[in-house]
């Protein structure tokens, strides 16, 4: 069943009954902390863990660059089909958006990026890249596996969801601004909030790091014949002018925003920060929630967070007993697969808790698929 068929049947069913998909009351406050614990146990089970590892390795062996993730997208769609999760495809060339739950508000999204980097892998392993000059050097293969793991957990509990979880698998985070194109294609239609997770070698396994407010920098690309190391021109912003004329030459600065759009600053929503602290505390313990200082790295998750409340999280994977884990964009980058269950459980728990808390408030978001039809 494709997404449009599923949505039509869901809306007809709701209109006929004029009732929620389930009349069971929301879990009591003392039950809420147990949900993330149960989800983590599920994610660590051999059935789910080994499945996530297999997906990650398959994607890692066959890396694809931005807007070329056709085989990666095919793997994702095959797994969604196996789980009977409806989806839209394609968005932004290769993107996939899946739906779990009632098809009605509240809507909350969880996101993974899919693209690899144009680098030759230096790590020698059984599952290293099979494609010369391309590798998953930033963990996007892990992000896809984690989001699919969360989807499996949520789909098994879909009858308990009094809302809709939107699974966003997006292309071209590495400079191509895939998130912006996903937005343009309607990936977040009706969505009220979005969460993103990124594996990190900076934090120990079993920890997460984030903060409220600005967390990552904006960035942009330009081409010229000089490398800009430093401008020394006094205190005024516009003090440097007509330098090409002074040097008796012509200069052109090219900002190719169509191919490489400028990324805004990534800003975490303060209300979602409070929800994150509760959920992560339930899963990992408050002592394992670390404060992440803002860094100069950039992320196209920022496009989502510009239009709806968003929250971006670093998932620790450092384990010194397993050797050194390099930072992203290194040819020696590798993923600690022990981090996958934590990411899957965190995604599933954040989405579930968001829906449960939204249910308890009378002011559901305006607009839904039901309103539009």
TrEMBL record:
Any one biological process term the GO annotation gives: auxin metabolic process
Gene: ILL4_5
Needed cofactors: Mn(2+)
Amino acids binding Mn(2+): 138, 140, 174, 198, 329
Swiss-Prot/TrEMBL keywords: Manganese, Metal-binding, Signal
Top-level taxon: Eukaryota
Note accompanying the cofactor annotation: The Mn(2+) ion enhances activity.
Name of the molecule in the record: Iaa-amino acid hydrolase ilr1-like 4
Recorded GO MF terms: IAA-Ala conjugate hydrolase activity; metal ion binding
Position of the signal peptide: 1-23
Record organism: Quercus suber (Cork oak)
A Pfam family hit: Peptidase_M20
Keyword Signal belongs to the record: yes
GO cellular component: endoplasmic reticulum
Keyword Metal-binding: yes
């Amino acid at each position: 069943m494709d997404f449009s068929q599923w949505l039509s049947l869901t809306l007809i069913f709701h209109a006929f009954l004029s009732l929620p998909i389930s009349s069971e009351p929301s879990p009591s406050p003392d039950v809420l902390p147990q949900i993330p614990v149960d989800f983590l146990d599920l994610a660590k089970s051999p059935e789910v863990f080994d499945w996530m590892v297999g997906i990650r390795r398959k994607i890692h062996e066959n890396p694809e660059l931005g807007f070329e993730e056709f085989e990666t997208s095919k793997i994702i769609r095959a797994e969604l089909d196996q789980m009977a999760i409806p989806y839209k495809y394609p968005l932004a060339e290769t993107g996939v958006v899946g739906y779990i739950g009632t098809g009605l508000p509240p809507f909350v999204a969880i996101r993974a990026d899919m693209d690899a980097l144009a680098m030759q892998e230096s790590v020698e392993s059984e599952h290293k890249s099979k494609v010369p000059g391309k590798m998953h050097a930033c963990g996007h293969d892990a992000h896809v596996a984690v989001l699919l793991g969360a989807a499996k957990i949520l789909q098994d509990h879909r009858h308990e969801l009094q809302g809709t979880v939107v699974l966003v698998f997006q292309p071209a985070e590495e400079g191509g601004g895939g998130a912006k194109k996903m937005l343009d294609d309607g990936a977040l239609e009706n969505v009220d909030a979005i969460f993103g997770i990124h594996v990190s070698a900076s934090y120990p396994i079993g920890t997460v790091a984030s903060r409220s407010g600005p967390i990552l920098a904006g960035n942009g690309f330009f081409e010229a014949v000089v490398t800009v190391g430093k401008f020394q021109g006094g205190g005024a912003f516009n003090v440097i002018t007509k330098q090409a004329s002074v040097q008796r030459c012509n200069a052109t600065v090219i900002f190719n925003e169509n191919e490489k759009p400028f990324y805004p600053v990534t800003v975490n929503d303060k209300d979602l920060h409070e929800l994150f602290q509760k959920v992560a505390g339930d899963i990992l313990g408050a002592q394992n929630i670390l404060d992440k200082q803002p860094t100069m790295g950039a992320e196209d998750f920022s496009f989502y967070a510009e239009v709806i409340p968003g929250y971006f999280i670093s998932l620790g994977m450092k384990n010194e007993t397993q050797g050194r884990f390099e930072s992203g964009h290194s040819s020696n980058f590798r993923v600690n697969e022990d981090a996958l269950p934590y990411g899957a459980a965190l995604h599933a728990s954040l989405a579930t808790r968001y829906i449960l808390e939204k249910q308890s408030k009378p002011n559901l978001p305006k607009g839904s698929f039901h309103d539009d039809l």
